[in-house]
Design goal:
single chain, 59 residues, mainly alpha, 2 strands, 47% helix, DNA binding, Transposase
């Protein structure tokens, strides 16, 4: 994940994360994951709006 500039991992308490992510970079909790997911939802919504076809024909 270094090429992407990821400095911290914010996850829920699933055990696989604890086994595979370095403890010093891993934060467990919902507070930050909710913010990140909200940001991703907004981004997905905007992308869908841009990709939507505007050429509509009514018969």
């Amino acid at each position: 994940m270094e090429p992407f500039g990821i400095k911290r991992y914010c996850t829920d308490g699933w055990g696989a994360y604890e086994r595979h992510l370095p403890a010093e970079l891993h934060q467990v909790g919902k507070r930050k994951t909710q913010r990140i997911e909200q940001k991703h939802l907004r981004l997905r919504t905007r992308i869908k709006r841009l990709a939507r076809k505007t050429n509509v024909s009514y018969g």
